[in-house]
Model the fold of this input.
Amino acid sequence: MQQSLLTFEQIYYTYPGAKKSALNGITLRIPQNKRCALIGKNGCGKTTLFSLANGLYKPQRGIVSWQDKPLQYDRKSLMKLRQKVGLVFQDPEQQLVASTVEEDISYGLCNFGLPIAEIQQRVSQALVEFELTELAERPVHHLSLGQKKRVSLADVMVLRPELLLLDEPTAYLDRPQSRNLMALLKKIHDSGTTIVMASHDLDLVYCWADWIFVMDEGRLILEGTPQDVFSQRDILKNLQLGLPLIYEILINEGLATEGTSLERFRQKILNIFC
Ligand SMILES: Nc1ncnc2c1ncn2[C@@H]1O[C@H](COP(=O)(O)OP(=O)(O)OP(=O)(O)O)[C@@H](O)[C@H]1O
Done:
């Protein structure tokens, strides 16, 4: 059986003062080394689940475990967890804290108390990897949104997490920036990092993910390979999610049939776009 990195078991979470719970007994296992996508309507609980994954919130009921060990919520344990589970928020403004790009990338490493030489080495490497060297001295509030998103990803990746959670990473990015981001994610995944991406872009999800979770009203409704999930048209229609346009064209136009020929098309598209 595939090893799980992070496990949510029967998780319930209600925001303070809210009438309805955001998570309603969700059980979900994040498999190691996969490119996972989390999809679902606005407000179904994706961001909340991410916030529980790195201990930002604590469930009122249920257990979140890292490699089968229940999370501990004391400061030291949470620091350790956040080195392993990196969360990149949808809005980079929520993440950027320092005045310059270089300082921002070093912020987390300083918090973790790493030796200065190692901090400098990791920051220089991140500046190169994320093509931020020319922006190193720039104030973060002078950057474009796409540049801010790149910095927020660098902030997290510099800590070398084993699991990377990305909330709507391509939201507001233009096409070239989205493609650059996907190229970066490929490198990150190839280096052994498990990725979970919450996204409303079903075409991107269809091409990129090798495992998909479908949520609704704080629960997991479906999970599986892109083929497994998108062949469940009726369930997806009831959830008002629809299908990826690429998938619909391939099937409706008779260009591919569900099964191996469809998977071949998917792999081809993946090679072109991601
Ligand atoms: N800080 C908060 N206080 C109270 N309720 C909240 C808060 N944040 C989210 N919620 C509610 O919790 C539910 C789940 O929200 P969440 O942001 O997790 O959904 P989501 O799937 O990420 O949505 P989206 O696709 O729009 O980003 C929603 O009903 C939302 O209104």
The mean pLDDT is 91. The first strand starts at residue 4 and ends at 13.
